[in-house]
């Protein structure tokens, strides 16, 4: 009888101390972001981790800015740019677990995320906003961008939208007039739609240096948005081809395909040549009657984003040949802003956000501007929480032949509340409310101008 064999117990899996240290740092980060009460055990463990890897404990203090840390410990300045780009986020060796470098990276990443995303609540001072902007700039460097690049173009990616939203929230909690009165602080503000809304609401209470700085910020935002929209409107052709006008017989208008097709009967197999006895040219003449574009804007506070974008867009289309643009803003009164349609900055300064809404007064003014219905587009920008008698006006305008384009929101987020009663009836009329990116409205207007 054979003796029973004894099997050795399986060896306990080896513990990677670096993985544990990294986990401690990230658990502490999550605790600070989602729980305002300090966790003493995590704090002690995190201090021990930083001491072990030779990093300063100042990285754990959310009250210490990244700029201050870098000034005190200059050797860290070179580690932060590109810290969070994808190729730098893996372990030191493929297939290996976290090493000392991963723990160090976790400590630096935690500092950036903590300072940028733990914004607290309550009032914000100008100094606190300036410090947050500096910290956000370091985070943008860490993901491979220039400071301010993501916040200045929130539509480019999810992180940019989040950072712009955080900055906007801080602006709302800040004493804005204090910042505007200081040119140095005002220049550091990132122009966003949230900031523009704040400035438009408060412009009547500003004067002197503060008012000048507010205007400069609005102008910067308008110019930045206009630059983006202008590229989307480029190459817009205006009007139908007028085939009653003979084509110009110049080389750039030569229709090569049609010329070859029509002359195929002249192909000589013996000579292996195509003899052309007639050239064909493209028609390029377009209608000479200007297309009329009537833009009606609800200037209530809920429509600021769409109002700003569409006001700028109207000015760009007004610069195209053969486009006659009219601009009307309304609340309980209607205001004809057509004389300033080429300057969206001046238009915005003349708006008065808030108040009630009565679209019927704007419709009366808008209908007076319709001379040739089939050569007219009317863009109506509103959340449509309005007098339901306005629907009959919309239907009458649509039946007359006007290209009616209702707009609920045209912004980077695309989120906007629109009255469901109006939304359903406008859709049934064949003119659904446009919501989403402003490219949708640009496409609608380009179609009208090219084919109308």
TrEMBL record:
Domain VWFA: 290-450
Alphabetized Pfam families for the sequence: VWA_CoxE
InterPro entries given in the database record: Uncharacterised_CoxE, VWF_A, vWFA_dom_sf
UniProt protein name: VWA domain containing CoxE-like protein
Signal sequence residues: none
Source lineage: Bacteria, Bacillati, Actinomycetota, Actinomycetes, Streptosporangiales
Coiled coil region boundaries: none
């Amino acid at each position: 009888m054979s003796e029973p064999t004894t099997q050795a117990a399986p060896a306990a899996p080896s513990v990677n101390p670096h993985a544990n240290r990294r986990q401690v740092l990230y658990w502490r980060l999550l605790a600070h972001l989602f729980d305002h009460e300090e966790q003493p055990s995590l704090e002690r463990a995190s201090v021990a981790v930083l001491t072990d890897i030779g990093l300063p404990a100042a990285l754990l203090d959310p009250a210490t800015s990244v700029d201050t840390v870098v000034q005190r410990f200059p050797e860290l300045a070179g580690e932060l740019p590109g810290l969070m780009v994808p190729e730098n986020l893996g372990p030191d060796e493929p297939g290996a677990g976290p090493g000392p470098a991963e723990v160090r990276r976790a400590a630096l990443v935690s500092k950036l995320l903590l300072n940028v995303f733990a914004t607290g609540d309550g009032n914000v001072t100008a100094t606190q906003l300036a410090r947050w902007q500096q910290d956000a700039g370091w985070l943008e460097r860490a993901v491979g961008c220039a400071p301010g690049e993501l916040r200045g173009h929130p539509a480019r990616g999810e992180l940019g939208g989040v950072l712009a939203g955080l900055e906007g929230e801080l602006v709302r909690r800040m004493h804005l007039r204090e910042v505007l009165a200081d040119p140095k602080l005002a220049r550091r503000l990132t122009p966003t739609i949230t900031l523009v809304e704040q400035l438009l609401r408060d412009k009547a209470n500003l004067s002197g240096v503060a008012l000048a700085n507010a205007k400069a910020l609005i102008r910067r935002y308008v110019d930045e948005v206009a630059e983006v929209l202008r590229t989307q409107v480029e190459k817009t052709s205006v009007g139908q081809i007028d085939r009653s006008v003979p084509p110009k017989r110049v080389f750039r208008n030569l229709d090569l395909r049609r010329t070859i097709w029509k002359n195929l009967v002249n192909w000589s197999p013996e000579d292996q040549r195509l003899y052309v006895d007639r050239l064909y040219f493209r028609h390029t003449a377009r209608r000479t009657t200007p297309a009329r574009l009537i833009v009606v804007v609800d200037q209530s506070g809920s429509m600021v984003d769409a109002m700003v974008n569409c006001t700028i867009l109207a000015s760009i289309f007004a610069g195209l040949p053969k486009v006659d643009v009219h601009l009307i803003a309304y609340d309980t009164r209607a205001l004809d802003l057509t004389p300033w349609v080429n300057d969206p900055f001046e238009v915005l300064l003349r708006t008065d956000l808030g108040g009630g809404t009565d679209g019927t007064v704007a419709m009366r003014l808008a209908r007076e501007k319709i001379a040739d219905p089939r050569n007219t587009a009317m863009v109506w920008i509103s959340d449509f929480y309005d007098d339901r008698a306005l629907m009959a006006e919309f239907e009458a305008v649509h039946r007359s032949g006007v290209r009616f384009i209702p707009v609920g929101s045209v912004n980077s987020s695309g989120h906007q509340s629109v009255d469901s009663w109006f939304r359903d009836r406008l859709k049934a009329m064949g003119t659904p409310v446009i919501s989403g990116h402003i490219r949708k409205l640009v496409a609608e207007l380009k179609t009208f101008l090219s084919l109308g």
